[in-house]
Design a protein that fits this description.
The chain has two domains: 192 residues, no CATH class; 205 residues, no CATH class. α9 crosses α12, α9 runs parallel beside α13 and α11 runs antiparallel to α12. It has 14 helices and twelve strands. It is an alpha+beta fold. The chain is 51% helix and 20% strand. The strands form two sheets. Strands 2-3-8-5-7-6 form a six-stranded mixed beta barrel, surrounded by four helices.
Length: 414
């Protein structure tokens, strides 16, 4: 009965209620679209990082005390130091949820072409295995590295687009890579440029190169690798698989660490923290505007019904009942406005996704960003709950007025 009475009271002044519903609906639309874009950005960035070469998990010798961590870039200047990696790979690939693994060698040195020389950070993988893992490079020219191990003298390289530009080379041209070997000496190998690719970041494109694992082994004069990269099946629980792999690793000899992609990608954590901060800030502003607007609506509603409330109090109605009535009106306003805003959001999101609008690349990035919205069913529920709590809190001033209301003054109120 109280809910029905509150719904009837809500539409006694239809113009004011309509304006309040518009405010609530716009607030819901703003929150949901912002949340949907942020979720799409997180999902796209994480997929780009994983499919771009970092993979889901990395198995590597544990970092010594005092090191900066297990990030791949942290070991690019250190010689490969992973003994018995083939046996470890066999164990890892038997674990449930693992799609494939590839050995990885990280190296750093100088790439030369005639009179030009540029420092580079190289990564060596097994092309056939990385394709099974879903690691796909964004080629800008030429072709990918062949799956088969190249013979001596037929080694090829993929260069970052900015690195290729700095060296003034393209597909089919020859370059020389010079690095320090595992025993501390210098070694150089002639390479043919198979193609150019982009990582999506200009700074990284200016120093990154990819070669076949066999090429890196000859270049570094070693049969050891830096780490094993692990690709998981779609939907696999990364943490659960990581624990399973850690339990399967040898417990004697070299200690190993299993690290997930997010830990090895501080850039992702920084972007995520920035976006979450922006969402909280925008949510606070939207919430404040909605609360102030609806609080004014409830204040006016109570002010217009002072004599009515005075009469109810004179008849013995409890003040708590009147307070619950106002709160129930706020709940109805939040639910109706939330549902309307959710329906409107679905339509707007569908239109945005269908238009495939491209935004300019962010700072230091290469590719433009597609404006898209990714929503989940629970988002609509949380938006309605948030608006309900917000509007209930906005009833505090009018409820306080009800508790201060004097019956005699209320009955004589004009």
């Amino acid at each position: 009965m109280l809910a029905a009475l509150a719904l009837r009271n809500l539409f006694r002044n239809r113009r004011r209620t309509a304006l309040s519903l518009v405010v609530v609906s716009v607030g819901v639309v703003s929150l949901l679209l912002t949340l949907g874009f942020i979720r799409y950005s997180f999902d796209g960035l994480s997929e780009a990082i994983i499919r771009g070469g970092l993979a889901h998990l990395e198995v590597a010798p544990a970092s010594p005390p005092g090191s900066t961590g297990n990030a791949l870039i942290d070991r690019s200047g250190s010689p490969p130091d992973f003994p018995g990696w083939r046996e470890v790979r066999e164990r890892v690939e038997k674990r449930p949820g693992v799609r494939a693994t590839t050995a990885s060698i990280q190296m750093a040195g100088v790439m030369m072409n005639g009179q030009r020389s540029v420092a580079f950070a190289g990564a060596a993988l097994e092309p056939d295995r990385q394709k099974r893992m879903g690691i796909n490079l964004k080629l800008r020219s030429g072709v990918d590295l062949p799956d088969a191990a190249p013979s001596p003298g037929e080694d090829q390289v993929l260069l970052g687009v900015e690195l290729a530009r700095a060296l003034a080379v393209g597909p089919g041209d020859a370059v020389v890579a010079m690095v320090g070997t595992a025993d501390g000496t210098l070694n150089a190998v002639d390479l043919t440029v198979a193609g150019t690719f982009t990582t999506g970041l200009q700074d990284l494109d200016a120093r990154v190169a990819r070669v076949h694992l066999a090429t890196a082994e000859r270049l570094l004069s070693t049969d050891r690798v830096t780490s094993l990269l692990v690709g998981l099946e779609d939907g696999a629980d990364i943490d659960a698989v990581a624990r399973s792999i850690q339990q399967e690793l040898p417990t004697t000899g070299t200690p190993f660490a299993v690290t997930d992609w997010a830990t090895r990608a501080p850039f992702y954590r920084q972007v995520r923290g920035l976006y979450i901060g922006i969402f909280v800030f925008l949510g606070a502003i939207i919430g404040l505007l909605v609360a102030l607007s609806t609080s004014n609506t409830f204040q006016m509603s109570v002010l217009e019904r002072v004599r009515e409330f005075g009469t109810l109090l004179a008849m013995g109605t409890d003040r708590l009942q009147l307070a619950r009535l106002v709160v129930m009106e706020a709940v109805w306003l939040a639910i109706i406005g939330g549902v309307a805003g959710s329906a409107l959001t679905i339509g707007i999101a569908a239109a945005i996704n269908a238009l495939e609008i491209e935004m300019p690349p962010p700072p230091a990035a290469v590719d433009p960003i597609t404006l898209s919205v990714m929503l989940q069913p629970t988002d609509f529920l949380w938006a309605i709950v948030f608006m309900t709590l917000l509007l209930v809190a906005a009833t505090a001033p009018p409820i306080l007025r009800i508790f201060r209301l004097q019956v005699v003054e209320a009955l004589g109120h004009v």
